[in-house]
Amino acid sequence: MKLKSVVTLSVGALLLMAGVQVICTLYAYRSVAAQAEEALDKSFVRAFRYTVMDKRERSLSHYPDGTILYFQCVPPDSSYAVDNEKYTFYVAQQESAVLQDYYGLPEISLDTLCMNLENELRHEGISGVLSIVKGKEDEAGPRQVYADGTDSRWPGLRMVSGKAYLHRTKGVYVQSQLFIPFYQGIVGRFLLFNATTLMLMLLVVGTFWSRSRRLRKQQAGIDRQKQNFYLQAKNMESPMWRMKEDIAASAWEPAREASRHLLDAVEETLTEAKLENRKLQKRRWGRFAFSWWLSLVGIVLLMAFWTVYIYRTLKQETIDGAQVCLEQAFNSEAGARFEKAFDAVEASGESWLTYTPMPTRQALLQLDSLLKHCWVENLSRGNPDGEPVFMGNVTTIDHSSKLLIGANDQILGAYHTQGLIEDRVGGRFPFDKAYVDSAFNGELRRKDYPVGRLHFFCSDSDSLASGLTTFVTRAFRVREEQPEKMQGVMQVPVSYLVRSAWYLFLPLVQMLVFTLSCIYIQWRIARRQRKQGQFRRDFTYAMIHDMKSPLQSVLMGSQIMASGKLGEGSEKAARIVSAMQDECDHLLALSHRVVTLTQIERGELQLHKTEVSLRPLLDDLCAKFRLKAPKPVSFEVDCADGLCVTADAFCLREVLSNLVDNAVKYSRREVRIRLSALRTAGGVSIRVRDNGIGIPARDRQRIFGKFERVASGRLVTGFGLGLSFVRQVVQAHGGMVSVQSDGRSYSEFVVLLPQ
């Protein structure tokens, strides 16, 4: 892959990931802010109600149980009459004013309210800097601030709850303010996660850039080696012809000088290639590889950590939400049974409750004042006539009630209601499990949770535990004094978790794709480097074997013959001269291939086409390779005697010689080669089939490129020019060449020449 492409793709991937992470962070910020604001409002309402109730129970402890303190009154046309949460909050504000006006008690303590609110928020899993503000509606600015810490200069979430009136007619209110620094909570962890992963990805991209740059330098060095060899082989043709003529004329001294000159030139090219290879080998990329793998492992570990963290957070949030649904269903069942019991008692003519009566003067004074208070409220709502008020329950002294700040009062309220039912009607209206199950699933559906079921048990060993996709709520007793307990159980699919927090999982998916892409690109780079290293080794070996060694043989032979130690007509001298001529032919063939390829590329090749008889040509090739092949070769020729083709005889011989030479090189110990020729509708088809190692499908087109060779796992000489020469020469004749192979036991090259 080109360096520019790697840099462009890497920078683009980083920008895309950064953009997606910014969007997901903003979405997470808004989501967390909305959840925190809702939790703050609900917690503030409960904390205010608990604080007022605690004030009443502590300050009026001298009243006996059942004493009526006041009648709870709300406007009949408001939502307070039908919404239990709003009703209890409205009554708590009423009670605050009543305790001040008619019982002479001071306002509730902001210290106590702040402490209760902290406990409630902690129960909701929210932590931050909390403050309580007390103000008056007709005055600008707060009158009193308790534990103000929201003026921090750190960025973060700043939230303000609704107002709770300490005295509505006087306009005195309190409200809470919460500041969550950005480094706290899931948003802070999300930002830290994104920043860390972006740094690691930047390090990975830097490693890619460095390694791709090194790869480009290696490729440039290899290209220089190819060009030097190309020029060397091209410039060798004329000196080799002269040297061959000198050998034929027994001019040993000129032949020795020519071979020495060519050998020095080849040695210089080879030395330069070795120095280049040595320089590249010294540039170890170990530190880059260590940084890359360290970064990649860091990304994978962060992904695993963040996945586990998100899963555990969502799991706990879902379990807590299901717990609230179950407690509401439990309290709802108690309320439904209470209505049945109340109707039964009223139908029998009995009174449901009996209270210790208040002094008449105090009761009348309180009732009159409350009616006046409600009238003032209606007047402020734009109704001067004052609509009738809804007379709700009564607030009484109950020293036996259990007030636990931070605990859900749904269960406590249900236990209290169960106690009232038991006292009045006994066991006539038993606990309705089917009702609780239906109400539980109704609450779950309302909050868009998966449906669940109830699990009842008596022994703790029968309690269920949460699993990977099975979420189980906390257990609590069905009756306060009995051992039977209940739990809510939900089967939560992974798709629900992903859907509910997609903005947290999206960066994970993005990083997974990035990581897999990094591994793939790194594998490609490593594979390319291995191929380049193998090419450098093969190229150096080919220069030594196919250029340097033949020239050394010619030089040594010419020196021996020039010394005069061997007679001109001796058998040994004849063998030396024959060997020198063979080496010259080998170098001339190599040079001719390079020159021919150059001419073809420049469009300068001139073909001398004649009628070439194929059978003699094939027989001659078989005889030649039987003598010169380094291992046993058997040939099978299938060609009609009179079959001819119009082609350049020398080029066609070189084409077929290259194909047979490759068949010998890449075959096993015993070589079997079949040469066949057949006239077809498109021309003359010449086939060369061997019993060699085959050619993989991925290499069947690549092998026809210059300097390309099949990775055979064995040391084979040659520069990889043979098949490139074959294809270009055949195409220059207007024909085509193809290869067929099963990749393991044979290869068959097909040359199709036009008629």
Give a brief description.
The chain has helices at residues 3-59, 84-101, 110-123, 185-234, 237-248, 252-282, 286-347, 360-380, 409-425, 433-446, 494-500, 502-563, 571-602, 614-628, 649-665, 722-732; strands at residues 68-74, 129-136, 144-146, 156-160, 164-167, 172-181, 390-396, 452-457, 470-472, 476-477, 485-491, 609-613, 633-638, 644-648, 671-680, 683-690, 736-741, 747-753. It has 755 residues and is an alpha+beta fold.
- Kindly provide the radius of gyration, computed on alpha-carbon positions and rounded to a whole number of angstroms: 48 Å
Tell the overall outline.
Answer: elongated
Question: Strand count, sense and closure of the main sheet?
Answer: 5 strands, antiparallel
Round the mean pLDDT to the nearest integer and report it: 77
Note the quaternary state here.
single chain
Derived structural class = alpha+beta
Let me know the number of strands. Answer: 18
Strand fraction = 5-15%
Q: How would you sum up this structure, described in words?
A:
With 755 residues, this protein is α+β, with helices and mostly antiparallel strands. It contains 16 helices and 18 strands. The protein has helices spanning 3-59, 84-101, 110-123, 185-234, 237-248, 252-282, 286-347, 360-380, 409-425, 433-446, 494-500, 502-563, 571-602, 614-628, 649-665, 722-732, and strands at residues 68-74, 129-136, 144-146, 156-160, 164-167, 172-181, 390-396, 452-457, 470-472, 476-477, 485-491, 609-613, 633-638, 644-648, 671-680, 683-690, 736-741, 747-753. The strands form five sheets. Strands 2, 3, 4, 5 and 6 form a five-stranded antiparallel β-sheet that branches. A five-stranded mixed β-sheet has the order 13-15-16-18-17, with helices on one face. A hairpin with a 2-residue loop joins strand 15 and strand 16 (683-690). The protein is elongated. The two termini are 43 Å apart.
